[in-house]
Write a structure and sequence with these properties.
The protein is an alpha+beta fold. The protein has 4 domains: about 240 residues, no CATH class; about 80 residues, PDZ domain (Pdz3 Domain), CATH 2.30.42; about 60 residues, no CATH class; about 120 residues, Beta-Lactamase. It has 16 helices and 11 strands. The strands form 2 sheets. Strands 1, 2, 3, 4, 5, 6 and 7 form a 7-stranded antiparallel sheet that branches. The protein has a 4-stranded antiparallel sheet with strand order 9-8-11-10, with helices on one face. It is globular, with a radius of gyration of 30 Å.
Length: about 550
């Protein structure tokens, strides 16, 4: 992705946010069922929609109810009416549901009420806080680096996710099928915006912290990242469309296509991250390790505290609010990777995370299992539960903390620390010889000089020309270099002899090169010029 004008990125991000906010505002102003019976599009029965009310009651819809009709009209008729020009009957004050419950058909007459905002926020408060935080962090990164392609993509990706998550977690109430724009905005947010978000995430990891070699060779492949989402959706719908007849089932099928998007694009996201890491330099790998850290923070607790306990039948599960808070690590780590990655020791942070996050999960699972075991023993021996089970479980936890912590620390140290090497001195000598060889190798030195200069100043492009037979010949270029791209020239000279020149383009962050920037870089260029002069004629002037 080439850097585009920041104002265009800002306008597109604002439109994405407005689409999600429009869905929210329409819910606020339109009357609905106070129990807020959200539709479960992954479970269809008897041609109706299964609902999951946030506040079920005896005189309203309950969990698992199958809504067949509203006000005497089937749900299929409402879906078909989305594309007709027929005028509605006007605002209603009550809803008459035809419901299947426990094998019986019931008629429920429910009065309409204002949108239960507090109820919805209480159910998903951590997710809503996360998407707001995500949008604010991406906006901050964009403001500080408006021309950096990764910052632009981060803002657009966050805006897609904001719109999609807001719509998805607000959900579509079954009575919302009466309103055309609510259904259209729901499909846009839950399906279209989600697909674009997945594609943008993959694209983001192919340009951060540098443009992937694949995109350098085939820049046109970017469009297939986005088109691929919809090709998958079309193939999924074509494969099952003929077997699905009713409009309600086809709407559900469209929503279910997001599962296939996730199955394909989430592995692509991990693969693109890993591939960029393998081809990156030291600085770029440090930046990507921040992303790895955020994945550890979010995925490891979920695996240890939710997925694995459920597989072995333990009742312990990580609460969704806590999971939503852990997701904050993702935008935080990306912002640090872009803006301030040199401030923190990411290797130490990852080391401690890999020790204490699994340790927390193991001890929590051990405590839960111990309480269950001791309670069963007390019931078997005394016929009733006892608080002593909690006391004994706490003692087990206290005694297990240090052994588990030391074992995990040793395991992580073996994997991430350099092992004791009896041939260390010989290997150190080899590295010293390689360092001397690198200094002697002019091509390797100038490549490193340009890479470090572009990374330090976030330059859009750069090149180094060396003197050959009285002419300057391009020796190395980066960042989509082309003639006329450069604005700063740093000459390589020694004893009045021109050896070459380093040229840098504009900065991605729109900052100006300060005098300190120029002086520092010129000193580095002079050092490289000394090395080139040494290779050509002997001892450099300042050592003579």
């Amino acid at each position: 992705m080439k850097s585009i004008h920041p104002s265009l990125v800002a306008v597109l991000a604002a439109l994405l946010l407005l689409s999600g906010l429009a869905f929210f505002v329409l819910h606020l102003v339109l009357p609905g069922d106070a129990s807020y019976p959200r539709v479960n599009f992954y479970e269809l029965k008897y041609g109706g929609l299964v609902v999951q009310p946030l506040s079920p009651g005896p005189q309203s819809l309950q969990n698992g109810d199958v809504v067949m009709a509203i006000d005497g009209r089937s749900l299929d008729q409402y879906i078909q009416g989305l594309f007709s020009t027929q005028v509605s009957d006007g605002p209603a004050t009550r809803l008459d549901y035809s419901v299947l419950r426990g094998g019986q058909t019931l008629q429920l007459d429910v009065p309409l009420a204002a949108f239960p905002l507090a109820l919805v926020m209480q159910a998903n408060w951590s997710i809503f806080l996360f998407i707001i935080y995500l949008e604010l962090v991406s906006l901050l990164v964009f403001v500080l680096r408006p021309r950096l392609p990764a910052a632009q993509l981060f803002l657009l990706t966050s805006s897609f996710l904001f719109s999609s998550a807001l719509v998805y977690y607000l959900g579509l109430e079954v009575g919302d099928l009466r309103f055309r724009w609510l259904v259209i905005l729901y499909v846009w947010g839950a399906v279209a915006a989600y697909g674009f978000a997945l594609a943008a995430l993959v694209h983001l990891m192919l340009v951060f912290p540098k443009r992937h070699p694949i995109l350098e060779r085939h820049p046109g492949w970017v469009r297939w990242i986005y088109l691929g989402v919809w090709l998958l959706t079309i193939l999924f719908l074509m494969a099952r469309w003929a077997s699905v007849i009713s409009p309600v089932a086809r709407l559900a099928l469209l929503v279910q296509s997001t599962t296939l998007m996730s199955v394909v694009y989430l592995p692509l996201l991990l693969l693109s991250t890993y591939s960029n890491y393998r081809t990156g330099n030291t600085l770029e790998k440090r930046q990507l390790r921040w992303i790895v850290w955020s994945l550890v923070i979010t995925l490891v607790p979920f695996l240890l505290l939710s997925l694995f306990p459920s597989l072995v039948g333990l009742p312990f599960r990580l609460s969704e609010p806590l999971l939503g808070v852990l997701l904050w690590a993702v935008p935080t780590s990306f912002a640090i990777a872009v803006l301030r990655e040199r401030v923190f020791d990411i290797d130490l942070i990852i080391n401690r995370t890999l020790v204490y996050v699994p340790l927390t999960g193991i001890l929590a699972g051990l405590y839960s299992a111990s309480v269950i075991l001791f309670q069963k023993l007390f019931i078997a021996s005394t016929g009733q539960k006892s608080d002593a089970a909690i006391v004994l479980s706490t003692l087990v936890l206290a005694s297990a903390f240090t052994p588990f912590k030391n074992s995990l620390q040793n395991l992580v140290d073996k994997r991430f620390k350099e092992p004791i090497d009896t041939l260390k001195e010989l290997k150190t000598f080899r590295k010293q010889v390689e360092s001397v060889a690198e200094v002697i190798d002019t091509r390797r030195v100038i490549r490193r000089l340009l890479d470090m200069a572009m990374s330090a100043f976030h330059a859009t492009c750069g090149a180094i020309y060396l003197e050959r037979d009285g002419e300057l010949v391009l020796a190395y270029a980066a960042g989509g270099w082309k003639e006329g791209c450069g604005i700063l020239h740093f000459p390589m000279e020694q004893e009045g002899v021109r050896l070459g020149v380093l040229i840098l383009g504009d900065r991605n962050d729109q900052k100006s090169y300060t005098s300190e920037d120029r002086n520092t870089l010129q000193q580095a260029v002079d050092s490289v010029a000394d090395m080139i002069w040494l290779n050509q004629v002997g001892t450099p002037a300042h050592l003579g």
